[in-house]
Amino acid sequence: MDKAADEERQPLWFLLLLALAASGGAVAYVPFLTILLPVRISELAGTEDVAVLSYVTFAGAVAASLANILFGWLSDRTGRRRAWILAGLLLSSILLMLSHNARDAQELILYVIAWQLGLNMMLGPLMAWAGDCVPDTQKGLLGGLLAFAPALGALSGTLITFPGLADSEQRLQLVILLVVLMVSPVLLAGRSRGLPHLTRPIETVSNELVDRLKLGPSIRSMWFARLLVQIAEAALFAFLLFWLRSLAPDFKDYEAARIFSGVLILAVPIALLAGRWSDQTRKPMLPLAVCAGLSSCGLLGMALAGNLDLALGGYFLFGIASMTFLSLHASQTLRVLPRPQHRGRDLGFFNLTNTVPSLIIPGFTLALVPVFGFSGLFLLLALFSAAACVLLSTLSRSN
After folding, report:
1. What does pTM read for this prediction?
2. Got the DSSP string for 131-186?
3. What is the spatial distance between Cα 146 and Cα 137, in angstroms, rounded to a whole number?
4. Which fold has domain 207-399?
5. What is the pLDDT of residue 3?
6. How far apart are CA 362 and CA 381, in angstroms?
7. Is residue 363 packed enough to be buried (19+ CB in 10 Å), middle (13-18) or exposed (0-12)?
8. Is the CA virtual torsion 378, 383, 387, 389 positive or negative?
9. Does residue 391 have a pLDDT over 80?
10. What local confidence, expressed as pLDDT, does residue 184 receive?
11. What is the pLDDT of residues 131-157, one digit of tens each?
């Protein structure tokens, strides 16, 4: 690689710090939403815990959606990404700790809404900052590194719930400590190499603007493809244990947790290899299309599986492919956004693909599972992933 080309790239240590901070974001919400919050709701709501958890999930998803757009836009307007990330880190940490003081379910819902605002004050500007700094030639590698985020999020849940390690309040403190340790390094030492062309505003009608606006169909395809795959991933995230117990009634919760963690860990090296390959070959969309297709195959295998072993094989294929897809998609989205000066806001709209599925999956499940079983749900989700593959295959031929 010549010197000029090397000057167009960020050092590996900076990409690692960005990925570590993104992993800190996952550690901030995965153990809280999947373990600590349901436990606290059970303590406060008793037999109404399922209904209260549904209300909390809905309210939190709405708050996260709006906050990600708002704070992405504010970081665009102020041009101070790191200040917003730091403020979000402090606010979300304080609110997470205060949530332990909730006296009833209604008060806990308010804490969760406020916490989601603080969390997305950190997460929205963080990904926009990555777009400000990381050139197209390294977006695949960045996507591969982002695969560490869900894996570390899941592992953090295992760590803080280790028997005898901490009580409920101390678990929150451990989460906060881990998040601060993971996000702070990029704020303190994240001096990236200046690449002005990545942040230069595009305001007037010029050849560059015309070229970027041609990406309109690409943006729509990328948005809908992620939504379709994310719906499938969210369904398995929420109902994995229920599905496994429908096949083997004595299936243990810790066995499901081990399987889920194993999928996340296996996805990391695959995402790294796929991301690096996409950078070297300049085919950023092809790995996404392949992963969406493999996700569809995995879901089809799950729907048609006649025994637990075949079902788990289908789930491993789906889980690894979908997690690889979501990690790579997060970085390649930065490639298709048309105006750098609106990057944070636009990423907020892309973030709706992460929050909307949690609002619609319960409806799909209630409509299909009682009538057709989980096989009916998985067949529909396989069609969704196949549609995502078609959308991205069209893009891969044009890139």
Report:
1. 0.87
2. HHH--GGGHHHHHHHHTHHHHHHHHHHHHHTSTTT--HHHHHHHHHHHHHHHHHHH
3. 16
4. Growth Hormone; Chain: A; (1.20.1250)
5. 46
6. 13
7. exposed
8. positive
9. yes
10. 96
11. 999 998 999 999 999 999 999 998 898
Residue 6: per-residue pLDDT: 52
Residues 206-214: contacts with CB within 8 Å, 24+ apart?
209/338, 212/338, 212/339, 213/338
Give me the residue label for tokens 């819902």. 109
Distance CA 32, CA 230 (A): 20
Q: Which helix (H) or strand (E) holds 48?
A: none
- In which band, very low, low, confident or very high, does the pLDDT at 397 lie, cut at 50, 70 and 90? low
Residues near 397 by beta carbon (within 8 Å), at least 6 away in sequence:
none
The alpha carbon torsion through 64, 30, 54, 49 (nearest 10 deg) reads -140
Parts of the chain belonging to CATH 1.20.1250.20: 1-137+148-185, 207-399
| pLDDT tens track for 183-217 | 999 999 877 777 777 777 766 444 444 444 445 67
State whether CATH 3.90.850.10 applies to domain 1-137+148-185. no
Q: How many C-alpha atoms does 189 have within 13 Å on its Cβ side? A: 14
Please name the amino acid found at residue 116: Q
